[in-house]
Protein backbone atom coordinates (compact mmCIF):
# COMPACT_ATOMS: atom_id res chain seq x y z
CA UNK A 1 0.00 0.00 0.00
CA UNK A 2 2.57 2.55 1.11
CA UNK A 3 4.59 1.78 -2.04
CA UNK A 4 1.73 2.90 -4.20
CA UNK A 5 1.51 6.11 -2.21
CA UNK A 6 5.22 6.76 -2.54
CA UNK A 7 4.75 6.42 -6.27
CA UNK A 8 2.08 9.12 -6.16
CA UNK A 9 4.46 11.30 -4.14
CA UNK A 10 7.14 10.88 -6.78
CA UNK A 11 5.13 11.11 -9.96
CA UNK A 12 2.82 13.97 -9.00
CA UNK A 13 4.95 15.98 -6.60
CA UNK A 14 8.49 14.94 -7.50
CA UNK A 15 9.55 14.17 -3.90
CA UNK A 16 11.77 11.22 -3.09
CA UNK A 17 10.41 10.14 0.27
CA UNK A 18 7.93 10.99 2.98
CA UNK A 19 8.76 13.41 5.73
CA UNK A 20 8.27 12.30 9.37
CA UNK A 21 4.63 11.46 10.07
CA UNK A 22 3.42 11.77 6.49
CA UNK A 23 3.53 8.04 5.75
CA UNK A 24 1.63 7.17 8.95
CA UNK A 25 -1.08 9.73 8.29
CA UNK A 26 -1.47 8.83 4.62
CA UNK A 27 -1.69 5.13 5.32
CA UNK A 28 -4.48 5.63 7.85
CA UNK A 29 -6.50 8.01 5.72
CA UNK A 30 -6.21 5.78 2.66
CA UNK A 31 -7.64 2.98 4.83
CA UNK A 32 -10.52 5.34 5.70
CA UNK A 33 -9.43 5.73 9.32
CA UNK A 34 -10.16 9.13 10.85
CA UNK A 35 -6.79 10.75 11.62
CA UNK A 36 -5.37 13.85 13.26
CA UNK A 37 -1.97 15.12 12.07
CA UNK A 38 -0.07 17.51 14.34
CA UNK A 39 3.01 18.68 12.49
CA UNK A 40 5.01 21.88 12.62
CA UNK A 41 4.58 24.66 10.08
CA UNK A 42 6.35 23.61 6.93
CA UNK A 43 6.18 19.98 8.04
CA UNK A 44 4.26 19.06 4.90
CA UNK A 45 0.64 18.73 5.97
CA UNK A 46 -0.84 19.38 2.53
CA UNK A 47 0.74 16.21 1.16
CA UNK A 48 -1.07 14.30 3.93
CA UNK A 49 -4.44 14.90 2.29
CA UNK A 50 -3.26 15.35 -1.28
CA UNK A 51 -1.74 11.88 -1.63
CA UNK A 52 -4.79 9.99 -0.22
CA UNK A 53 -7.04 12.30 -2.24
CA UNK A 54 -5.27 11.05 -5.37
CA UNK A 55 -5.15 7.43 -4.23
CA UNK A 56 -8.88 7.27 -3.43
CA UNK A 57 -11.83 7.60 -5.79
CA UNK A 58 -13.94 10.73 -5.69
CA UNK A 59 -13.55 14.36 -4.65
CA UNK A 60 -11.63 15.50 -1.57
CA UNK A 61 -13.12 18.44 0.35
CA UNK A 62 -10.56 20.61 2.12
CA UNK A 63 -11.98 23.01 4.67
CA UNK A 64 -9.68 25.93 5.33
CA UNK A 65 -10.22 29.22 7.17
CA UNK A 66 -7.61 30.95 5.02
CA UNK A 67 -9.33 32.27 1.94
CA UNK A 68 -6.08 33.88 0.80
CA UNK A 69 -4.37 30.48 0.68
CA UNK A 70 -7.00 28.62 -1.29
CA UNK A 71 -6.11 30.12 -4.64
CA UNK A 72 -2.39 29.41 -4.18
CA UNK A 73 -3.06 25.81 -3.19
CA UNK A 74 -5.40 25.29 -6.11
CA UNK A 75 -2.98 26.93 -8.54
CA UNK A 76 -0.15 24.66 -7.48
CA UNK A 77 -2.34 21.55 -7.87
CA UNK A 78 -3.46 22.73 -11.32
CA UNK A 79 0.18 23.29 -12.25
CA UNK A 80 0.78 19.61 -11.42
CA UNK A 81 -2.10 18.63 -13.69
CA UNK A 82 -4.47 17.78 -10.85
CA UNK A 83 -8.07 19.03 -11.26
CA UNK A 84 -8.82 21.31 -8.30
CA UNK A 85 -10.91 24.36 -7.51
CA UNK A 86 -12.07 26.55 -4.66
CA UNK A 87 -15.29 28.27 -3.79
CA UNK A 88 -15.40 31.29 -1.53
CA UNK A 89 -16.84 34.75 -1.18
CA UNK A 90 -14.09 36.27 -3.33
CA UNK A 91 -15.85 34.86 -6.42
CA UNK A 92 -18.86 36.36 -8.19
CA UNK A 93 -22.19 34.54 -7.78
CA UNK A 94 -22.07 33.37 -11.41
CA UNK A 95 -18.57 32.00 -10.99
CA UNK A 96 -19.63 30.20 -7.81
CA UNK A 97 -22.56 28.62 -9.63
CA UNK A 98 -20.56 27.48 -12.58
CA UNK A 99 -17.99 25.88 -10.27
CA UNK A 100 -20.80 24.20 -8.32
CA UNK A 101 -22.08 22.66 -11.53
CA UNK A 102 -18.62 21.34 -12.34
CA UNK A 103 -18.32 19.89 -8.84
CA UNK A 104 -21.72 18.23 -9.24
CA UNK A 105 -20.35 16.60 -12.40
CA UNK A 106 -17.50 15.13 -10.37
CA UNK A 107 -14.91 17.09 -12.35
CA UNK A 108 -12.55 17.78 -9.45
CA UNK A 109 -10.22 15.71 -7.27
CA UNK A 110 -9.91 18.56 -4.74
CA UNK A 111 -12.19 21.38 -3.69
CA UNK A 112 -11.19 23.99 -1.12
CA UNK A 113 -13.93 25.72 0.84
CA UNK A 114 -14.33 27.93 3.90
CA UNK A 115 -16.48 26.55 6.75
CA UNK A 116 -19.26 29.04 5.99
CA UNK A 117 -19.95 27.15 2.79
CA UNK A 118 -21.71 24.44 4.78
CA UNK A 119 -24.37 26.96 5.76
CA UNK A 120 -25.51 26.96 2.14
CA UNK A 121 -28.22 24.45 1.25
CA UNK A 122 -27.17 24.49 -2.39
CA UNK A 123 -23.69 23.34 -1.49
CA UNK A 124 -24.92 20.60 0.88
CA UNK A 125 -27.24 19.41 -1.85
CA UNK A 126 -24.35 19.01 -4.31
CA UNK A 127 -22.09 17.35 -1.76
CA UNK A 128 -24.71 14.72 -0.97
CA UNK A 129 -24.81 13.67 -4.61
CA UNK A 130 -21.16 13.28 -5.51
CA UNK A 131 -18.60 10.66 -4.53
CA UNK A 132 -16.41 12.02 -1.76
CA UNK A 133 -12.94 10.63 -1.05
CA UNK A 134 -12.25 12.45 2.22
CA UNK A 135 -12.99 15.58 4.21
CA UNK A 136 -9.96 17.39 5.65
CA UNK A 137 -9.98 20.16 8.25
CA UNK A 138 -6.86 22.24 7.65
CA UNK A 139 -5.81 24.52 10.54
CA UNK A 140 -7.98 22.27 12.67
CA UNK A 141 -7.17 24.10 15.94
CA UNK A 142 -9.77 26.67 14.79
CA UNK A 143 -12.41 24.06 15.65
CA UNK A 144 -11.74 24.26 19.37
CA UNK A 145 -12.54 27.09 21.71
CA UNK A 146 -9.31 26.20 23.52
CA UNK A 147 -7.39 27.06 20.36
CA UNK A 148 -5.89 30.53 19.91
CA UNK A 149 -7.87 31.15 16.77
CA UNK A 150 -11.33 29.73 17.45
CA UNK A 151 -13.85 30.02 14.61
CA UNK A 152 -17.39 29.20 15.74
CA UNK A 153 -18.37 28.50 12.12
CA UNK A 154 -15.75 25.76 12.08
CA UNK A 155 -17.25 23.91 15.01
CA UNK A 156 -20.86 24.36 14.00
CA UNK A 157 -20.43 22.48 10.72
CA UNK A 158 -19.61 19.18 12.42
CA UNK A 159 -23.27 18.26 13.13
CA UNK A 160 -24.16 19.23 9.55
CA UNK A 161 -21.41 17.01 8.16
CA UNK A 162 -22.56 14.08 10.27
CA UNK A 163 -25.85 14.14 8.41
CA UNK A 164 -24.05 13.74 5.12
CA UNK A 165 -23.83 9.96 4.84
CA UNK A 166 -21.32 9.66 2.03
CA UNK A 167 -18.20 10.91 3.79
CA UNK A 168 -15.89 7.89 4.20
CA UNK A 169 -13.16 9.52 6.31
CA UNK A 170 -12.32 12.68 8.22
CA UNK A 171 -8.92 14.11 8.84
CA UNK A 172 -7.71 17.10 10.80
CA UNK A 173 -4.40 18.91 10.41
CA UNK A 174 -2.79 21.54 12.60
CA UNK A 175 0.56 22.93 13.70
CA UNK A 176 -0.58 24.40 16.97
CA UNK A 177 -2.55 22.05 19.15
CA UNK A 178 -2.31 21.88 22.91
CA UNK A 179 -3.52 18.78 24.76
CA UNK A 180 -6.97 20.29 25.25
CA UNK A 181 -7.29 21.18 21.60
CA UNK A 182 -6.15 17.72 20.53
CA UNK A 183 -8.70 15.91 22.69
CA UNK A 184 -11.39 18.34 21.60
CA UNK A 185 -10.71 17.58 17.93
CA UNK A 186 -10.57 13.84 18.68
CA UNK A 187 -13.95 13.91 20.33
CA UNK A 188 -15.62 15.97 17.62
CA UNK A 189 -14.32 13.93 14.71
CA UNK A 190 -14.17 10.52 16.43
CA UNK A 191 -10.45 10.02 16.20
CA UNK A 192 -8.85 7.32 18.39
CA UNK A 193 -5.64 7.90 20.30
CA UNK A 194 -3.60 5.62 18.04
CA UNK A 195 -4.69 7.72 15.06
CA UNK A 196 -3.25 10.96 16.37
CA UNK A 197 0.08 11.41 14.60
CA UNK A 198 1.97 14.06 16.50
CA UNK A 199 5.47 14.88 15.28
CA UNK A 200 5.76 17.71 17.79
CA UNK A 201 6.47 21.36 17.17
CA UNK A 202 10.22 21.19 16.91
CA UNK A 203 11.75 22.91 13.89
CA UNK A 204 15.26 21.55 13.85
CA UNK A 205 16.42 23.83 11.06
CA UNK A 206 15.65 27.05 12.95
CA UNK A 207 18.26 28.77 15.11
CA UNK A 208 16.77 31.22 17.60
CA UNK A 209 18.71 34.25 18.76
CA UNK A 210 18.06 37.05 21.19
CA UNK A 211 20.00 40.25 20.68
CA UNK A 212 20.02 42.85 23.44
CA UNK A 213 21.47 46.29 23.84
CA UNK A 214 22.32 46.93 20.18
CA UNK A 215 21.17 49.79 18.00
CA UNK A 216 18.47 47.99 16.04
CA UNK A 217 18.88 49.71 12.70
CA UNK A 218 22.67 49.34 12.63
CA UNK A 219 22.32 45.71 13.65
CA UNK A 220 19.89 45.05 10.80
CA UNK A 221 22.07 46.89 8.27
CA UNK A 222 25.10 44.85 9.25
CA UNK A 223 23.03 41.65 9.14
CA UNK A 224 21.68 42.40 5.67
CA UNK A 225 25.21 43.19 4.53
CA UNK A 226 26.24 39.67 5.52
CA UNK A 227 23.13 38.02 4.08
CA UNK A 228 22.87 39.52 0.63
CA UNK A 229 20.89 37.50 -1.92
CA UNK A 230 18.92 35.84 0.86
CA UNK A 231 15.24 36.32 1.44
CA UNK A 232 13.94 37.38 4.85
CA UNK A 233 11.15 39.05 6.79
CA UNK A 234 11.59 41.84 9.34
CA UNK A 235 8.60 42.17 11.66
CA UNK A 236 7.95 45.42 13.49
CA UNK A 237 5.49 45.97 16.33
CA UNK A 238 3.82 49.03 14.80
CA UNK A 239 3.15 50.54 11.38
CA UNK A 240 5.25 53.51 12.29
CA UNK A 241 8.27 51.32 13.01
CA UNK A 242 7.73 49.60 9.65
CA UNK A 243 7.55 52.94 7.81
CA UNK A 244 10.66 54.29 9.53
CA UNK A 245 12.77 51.20 8.96
CA UNK A 246 11.59 50.96 5.37
CA UNK A 247 12.69 54.57 4.75
CA UNK A 248 16.02 54.05 6.47
CA UNK A 249 16.88 50.94 4.46
CA UNK A 250 15.51 51.95 1.07
CA UNK A 251 17.25 55.32 1.26
CA UNK A 252 20.49 53.31 1.39
CA UNK A 253 19.62 51.51 -1.79
CA UNK A 254 18.58 48.24 -0.14
CA UNK A 255 15.75 46.49 -2.03
CA UNK A 256 12.96 46.12 0.51
CA UNK A 257 9.21 45.66 0.36
CA UNK A 258 6.75 46.91 2.99
CA UNK A 259 3.40 45.56 4.19
CA UNK A 260 1.01 46.79 6.86
CA UNK A 261 -2.69 47.37 7.34
CA UNK A 262 -2.35 51.12 6.79
CA UNK A 263 -1.51 50.60 3.13
CA UNK A 264 -4.03 50.29 0.30
CA UNK A 265 -5.02 46.79 -0.72
CA UNK A 266 -3.40 47.36 -4.08
CA UNK A 267 -0.08 48.40 -2.54
CA UNK A 268 -0.14 45.42 -0.18
CA UNK A 269 -0.81 42.98 -3.00
CA UNK A 270 2.02 44.45 -5.02
CA UNK A 271 4.45 44.28 -2.12
CA UNK A 272 3.47 40.69 -1.40
CA UNK A 273 3.93 39.64 -5.03
CA UNK A 274 7.33 41.37 -5.26
CA UNK A 275 8.42 39.48 -2.16
CA UNK A 276 7.06 36.09 -3.20
CA UNK A 277 8.76 36.35 -6.60
CA UNK A 278 12.05 37.47 -5.04
CA UNK A 279 12.05 40.80 -6.87
CA UNK A 280 12.25 42.37 -3.42
CA UNK A 281 13.61 39.58 -1.25
CA UNK A 282 13.33 41.49 2.05
CA UNK A 283 9.91 42.23 3.56
CA UNK A 284 9.39 44.76 6.33
CA UNK A 285 5.98 44.19 7.85
CA UNK A 286 3.70 44.25 10.84
CA UNK A 287 1.93 41.08 11.94
CA UNK A 288 -0.70 41.86 9.27
CA UNK A 289 1.66 40.09 6.90
CA UNK A 290 2.05 36.36 6.72
CA UNK A 291 -1.27 34.62 7.28
CA UNK A 292 -1.45 32.39 4.27
CA UNK A 293 1.98 33.23 2.89
CA UNK A 294 3.80 30.14 1.77
CA UNK A 295 7.29 31.14 0.65
CA UNK A 296 9.66 28.29 1.17
CA UNK A 297 13.08 29.98 0.90
CA UNK A 298 12.81 32.54 3.70
CA UNK A 299 16.27 32.35 5.33
CA UNK A 300 15.67 34.63 8.31
CA UNK A 301 12.93 36.31 10.30
CA UNK A 302 14.02 39.28 12.37
CA UNK A 303 11.76 40.79 15.01
CA UNK A 304 12.60 44.47 15.24
CA UNK A 305 11.04 44.44 18.69
CA UNK A 306 9.52 41.90 21.03
CA UNK A 307 6.06 40.58 20.00
CA UNK A 308 3.10 40.21 22.36
CA UNK A 309 3.28 36.50 23.07
CA UNK A 310 5.10 33.27 22.30
CA UNK A 311 2.26 32.01 20.09
CA UNK A 312 2.59 34.92 17.66
CA UNK A 313 6.36 34.84 17.92
CA UNK A 314 6.64 31.16 17.00
CA UNK A 315 4.14 31.53 14.20
CA UNK A 316 5.93 34.54 12.70
CA UNK A 317 9.46 33.25 13.26
CA UNK A 318 8.30 29.89 11.86
CA UNK A 319 7.83 31.45 8.44
CA UNK A 320 11.57 31.02 8.06
CA UNK A 321 12.92 27.78 6.62
CA UNK A 322 9.78 26.09 5.38
CA UNK A 323 12.00 24.26 2.88
CA UNK A 324 13.87 22.61 5.76
CA UNK A 325 17.14 24.53 5.19
CA UNK A 326 18.96 26.12 8.13
CA UNK A 327 17.45 29.52 8.93
CA UNK A 328 17.75 32.19 11.61
CA UNK A 329 15.08 33.68 13.88
CA UNK A 330 16.36 36.79 15.58
CA UNK A 331 14.59 38.81 18.24
CA UNK A 332 15.96 42.28 18.98
CA UNK A 333 15.01 43.02 22.56
CA UNK A 334 15.03 46.22 24.51
CA UNK A 335 13.21 46.81 27.85
CA UNK A 336 11.01 49.53 26.27
CA UNK A 337 9.41 46.78 24.18
CA UNK A 338 7.57 45.62 27.29
CA UNK A 339 6.00 49.06 27.78
CA UNK A 340 5.03 49.18 24.11
CA UNK A 341 3.26 45.81 24.28
CA UNK A 342 1.47 46.79 27.50
CA UNK A 343 0.30 49.90 25.78
CA UNK A 344 -1.00 47.87 22.85
CA UNK A 345 -2.88 45.53 25.21
CA UNK A 346 -4.35 48.42 27.23
CA UNK A 347 -5.45 50.19 24.06
CA UNK A 348 -7.18 47.11 22.62
CA UNK A 349 -10.90 46.50 22.91
CA UNK A 350 -10.55 43.36 25.02
CA UNK A 351 -12.45 43.02 28.27
CA UNK A 352 -10.56 42.89 31.55
CA UNK A 353 -10.38 39.12 31.75
CA UNK A 354 -8.99 38.90 28.24
CA UNK A 355 -6.45 41.61 29.00
CA UNK A 356 -5.38 39.73 32.10
CA UNK A 357 -4.80 36.68 29.95
CA UNK A 358 -2.74 38.72 27.51
CA UNK A 359 -0.58 40.03 30.34
CA UNK A 360 0.13 36.48 31.48
CA UNK A 361 1.19 35.55 27.95
CA UNK A 362 3.26 38.72 27.68
CA UNK A 363 5.13 37.71 30.83
CA UNK A 364 6.10 34.38 29.23
CA UNK A 365 7.39 36.34 26.23
CA UNK A 366 9.43 38.62 28.49
CA UNK A 367 10.78 35.55 30.25
CA UNK A 368 11.86 34.14 26.90
CA UNK A 369 13.98 37.25 26.40
CA UNK A 370 15.66 36.71 29.77
CA UNK A 371 15.88 32.98 30.11
CA UNK A 372 19.25 31.29 29.98
CA UNK A 373 17.97 27.88 28.97
CA UNK A 374 18.07 26.73 25.35
CA UNK A 375 15.60 28.95 23.45
CA UNK A 376 14.13 26.09 21.41
CA UNK A 377 13.56 24.07 24.57
CA UNK A 378 11.92 27.07 26.19
CA UNK A 379 9.45 27.40 23.32
CA UNK A 380 8.71 23.68 23.17
CA UNK A 381 8.23 23.68 26.93
CA UNK A 382 5.81 26.58 26.63
CA UNK A 383 3.72 24.56 24.19
CA UNK A 384 4.07 21.49 26.41
CA UNK A 385 5.55 19.63 23.48
CA UNK A 386 5.73 15.92 24.17
CA UNK A 387 8.62 15.01 21.91
CA UNK A 388 11.89 14.69 23.84
CA UNK A 389 13.96 17.83 23.50
CA UNK A 390 17.50 18.53 24.45
CA UNK A 391 19.62 21.63 24.03
CA UNK A 392 19.50 22.59 20.37
CA UNK A 393 23.13 23.67 20.16
CA UNK A 394 22.17 26.41 17.69
CA UNK A 395 20.36 29.12 19.62
CA UNK A 396 22.13 32.12 21.12
CA UNK A 397 21.86 30.67 24.63
CA UNK A 398 23.41 27.38 23.51
CA UNK A 399 26.15 29.00 21.47
CA UNK A 400 27.34 32.14 23.23
CA UNK A 401 29.96 31.48 25.79
CA UNK A 402 29.21 33.94 28.51
CA UNK A 403 30.67 34.16 31.96
CA UNK A 404 28.76 32.36 34.62
CA UNK A 405 28.58 34.46 37.74
CA UNK A 406 27.31 33.55 41.18
CA UNK A 407 24.68 36.19 41.95
CA UNK A 408 23.17 34.52 45.00
CA UNK A 409 23.86 37.46 47.24
CA UNK A 410 22.44 39.99 44.81
CA UNK A 411 19.42 37.71 44.43
CA UNK A 412 18.97 37.67 48.20
CA UNK A 413 19.14 41.46 48.28
CA UNK A 414 16.57 41.73 45.51
CA UNK A 415 14.25 39.26 47.19
CA UNK A 416 14.45 40.90 50.57
CA UNK A 417 13.84 44.25 48.97
CA UNK A 418 10.68 42.87 47.34
CA UNK A 419 9.60 41.63 50.78
CA UNK A 420 10.37 44.96 52.49
CA UNK A 421 8.40 46.77 49.83
CA UNK A 422 5.37 44.72 50.83
CA UNK A 423 5.18 42.82 47.52
CA UNK A 424 3.20 45.74 46.14
CA UNK A 425 5.54 47.06 43.45
CA UNK A 426 6.87 46.12 40.05
CA UNK A 427 10.30 45.66 38.51
CA UNK A 428 11.18 49.28 37.89
CA UNK A 429 10.33 50.59 41.39
CA UNK A 430 12.22 47.72 42.99
CA UNK A 431 15.26 48.43 40.82
CA UNK A 432 15.12 52.11 41.78
CA UNK A 433 15.03 51.30 45.51
CA UNK A 434 17.98 48.92 45.22
CA UNK A 435 19.90 51.45 43.17
CA UNK A 436 19.19 54.16 45.75
CA UNK A 437 17.58 56.41 43.20
CA UNK A 438 16.43 59.93 43.92
CA UNK A 439 13.24 59.46 41.94
CA UNK A 440 10.32 61.45 43.27
CA UNK A 441 8.10 58.36 43.17
CA UNK A 442 10.24 56.75 45.86
CA UNK A 443 9.71 59.73 48.09
CA UNK A 444 5.97 59.66 47.43
CA UNK A 445 5.81 56.09 48.67
CA UNK A 446 8.39 56.71 51.44
CA UNK A 447 10.60 54.01 50.03
CA UNK A 448 13.87 55.79 50.72
CA UNK A 449 13.80 54.86 54.38
CA UNK A 450 13.80 51.12 53.64
CA UNK A 451 16.84 49.20 54.86
CA UNK A 452 17.30 47.82 51.36
CA UNK A 453 17.50 51.29 49.79
CA UNK A 454 20.73 51.58 47.81
CA UNK A 455 21.87 48.03 48.59
CA UNK A 456 22.91 47.47 44.98
CA UNK A 457 24.17 50.97 44.29
CA UNK A 458 27.31 49.50 42.68
CA UNK A 459 25.15 48.40 39.76
CA UNK A 460 23.39 50.47 37.16
CA UNK A 461 19.61 50.49 37.27
CA UNK A 462 19.68 48.58 33.98
CA UNK A 463 21.85 45.83 35.45
CA UNK A 464 19.53 45.51 38.44
CA UNK A 465 16.48 45.37 36.17
CA UNK A 466 18.16 42.66 34.11
CA UNK A 467 18.77 40.61 37.27
CA UNK A 468 15.20 40.97 38.48
CA UNK A 469 13.89 39.83 35.08
CA UNK A 470 16.31 36.94 35.24
CA UNK A 471 14.97 35.86 38.66
CA UNK A 472 11.42 35.97 37.28
CA UNK A 473 12.43 33.99 34.20
CA UNK A 474 14.03 31.38 36.45
CA UNK A 475 10.86 31.30 38.60
CA UNK A 476 12.81 32.36 41.67
CA UNK A 477 10.43 35.30 41.91
CA UNK A 478 6.81 35.53 40.77
CA UNK A 479 4.77 38.29 39.22
CA UNK A 480 1.15 39.03 39.76
CA UNK A 481 -0.10 39.91 36.34
CA UNK A 482 -1.90 43.07 35.43
CA UNK A 483 -1.17 46.38 33.87
CA UNK A 484 1.51 46.93 36.49
CA UNK A 485 2.66 43.44 37.44
CA UNK A 486 3.80 43.35 41.05
CA UNK A 487 6.63 41.17 42.24
CA UNK A 488 5.79 38.42 44.74
CA UNK A 489 7.96 35.97 46.61
CA UNK A 490 7.36 32.27 46.06
CA UNK A 491 8.60 29.04 47.58
CA UNK A 492 11.84 29.18 45.55
CA UNK A 493 12.48 32.75 46.71
CA UNK A 494 12.36 31.50 50.29
CA UNK A 495 14.96 28.84 49.52
CA UNK A 496 17.28 31.47 48.07
CA UNK A 497 16.74 33.77 51.03
CA UNK A 498 17.56 30.96 53.43
CA UNK A 499 20.75 30.21 51.52
CA UNK A 500 19.50 26.76 50.54
CA UNK A 501 19.90 27.50 46.89
CA UNK A 502 22.53 29.32 44.86
CA UNK A 503 21.79 31.46 41.83
CA UNK A 504 24.06 31.60 38.82
CA UNK A 505 23.63 33.87 35.88
CA UNK A 506 25.51 34.20 32.62
CA UNK A 507 26.62 37.75 32.22
CA UNK A 508 28.21 39.36 29.21
CA UNK A 509 31.99 39.24 29.45
CA UNK A 510 33.40 42.41 30.96
CA UNK A 511 34.36 44.66 28.01
CA UNK A 512 38.01 44.50 27.15
CA UNK A 513 39.46 47.96 26.82
CA UNK A 514 43.02 48.19 28.12
CA UNK A 515 41.86 49.81 31.32
CA UNK A 516 38.98 47.38 31.70
CA UNK A 517 41.37 44.48 31.21
CA UNK A 518 43.24 45.72 34.20
CA UNK A 519 40.13 45.89 36.36
CA UNK A 520 39.02 42.55 35.06
CA UNK A 521 42.28 40.92 36.11
CA UNK A 522 41.99 42.53 39.50
CA UNK A 523 38.41 41.36 39.82
CA UNK A 524 39.40 37.80 38.91
CA UNK A 525 42.22 37.94 41.45
CA UNK A 526 39.85 39.06 44.17
CA UNK A 527 37.43 36.32 43.25
CA UNK A 528 40.18 33.74 43.53
CA UNK A 529 41.15 35.14 46.94
CA UNK A 530 37.53 35.03 48.04
CA UNK A 531 37.29 31.40 46.97
CA UNK A 532 40.40 30.54 49.00
CA UNK A 533 39.00 32.24 52.09
CA UNK A 534 35.64 30.61 51.63
CA UNK A 535 37.15 27.15 51.22
CA UNK A 536 39.15 27.63 54.38
CA UNK A 537 36.09 28.66 56.34
CA UNK A 538 34.01 26.03 54.57
CA UNK A 539 31.27 28.48 53.52
CA UNK A 540 29.96 29.48 50.09
CA UNK A 541 31.94 32.43 48.63
CA UNK A 542 29.00 34.80 48.39
CA UNK A 543 28.62 34.76 52.16
CA UNK A 544 31.89 36.70 52.36
CA UNK A 545 31.49 39.30 49.62
CA UNK A 546 29.13 39.73 46.73
CA UNK A 547 30.49 40.09 43.20
CA UNK A 548 29.25 43.66 43.29
CA UNK A 549 31.45 44.36 46.29
CA UNK A 550 34.41 42.72 44.55
CA UNK A 551 33.77 44.77 41.43
CA UNK A 552 33.72 47.90 43.51
CA UNK A 553 36.84 46.89 45.37
CA UNK A 554 38.65 46.14 42.15
CA UNK A 555 38.00 49.71 41.05
CA UNK A 556 39.08 51.42 44.25
CA UNK A 557 41.99 49.21 45.23
CA UNK A 558 45.06 51.38 45.82
CA UNK A 559 47.89 50.58 43.38
P1 LIG B 1 2.45 22.85 6.27
O1 LIG B 1 1.06 22.95 5.71
O2 LIG B 1 2.63 21.68 7.19
O3 LIG B 1 2.92 24.12 6.90
P2 LIG B 1 3.18 22.47 3.53
O4 LIG B 1 2.23 21.38 3.24
O5 LIG B 1 2.83 23.82 3.01
O6 LIG B 1 3.45 22.57 5.08
O7 LIG B 1 4.62 22.01 3.02
C1 LIG B 1 5.76 22.81 3.24
C2 LIG B 1 6.79 22.59 2.14
O8 LIG B 1 7.34 21.27 2.23
C3 LIG B 1 6.19 22.71 0.77
O9 LIG B 1 7.08 23.48 -0.02
C4 LIG B 1 6.08 21.27 0.29
O10 LIG B 1 6.10 21.20 -1.10
C5 LIG B 1 7.30 20.63 0.96
N1 LIG B 1 7.14 19.17 1.18
C6 LIG B 1 6.10 18.53 1.73
N2 LIG B 1 6.30 17.20 1.80
C7 LIG B 1 7.53 16.97 1.28
C8 LIG B 1 8.34 15.78 1.09
N3 LIG B 1 7.92 14.57 1.44
N4 LIG B 1 9.56 15.96 0.54
C9 LIG B 1 10.00 17.19 0.19
N5 LIG B 1 9.30 18.32 0.33
C10 LIG B 1 8.08 18.24 0.89
MG1 LIG C 1 -0.62 24.14 5.60
ZN1 LIG D 1 19.50 25.99 22.11
TrEMBL record:
Its cofactor is Mg(2+); Zn(2+). Its EC number is 5.6.2.4. It catalyses: Couples ATP hydrolysis with the unwinding of duplex DNA by translocating in the 3'-5' direction. Residues 219-366 form the Helicase C-terminal domain. It comes from the Bacteria. GO terms for cellular component: bacterial nucleoid; cytoplasm; replisome. Signal peptide: none annotated. Keywords: ATP-binding, DNA damage, DNA recombination, DNA repair, DNA-binding, Helicase, Hydrolase, Isomerase, Metal-binding, Nucleotide-binding, Zinc. GO terms for biological process: DNA recombination; DNA repair; DNA replication; SOS response. Residues 26-195 form the Helicase ATP-binding domain. One of its GO terms (molecular function) is 3'-5' DNA helicase activity. Belongs to the helicase family. RecQ subfamily. This is DNA helicase RecQ. It comes from Ornithinibacillus hominis.
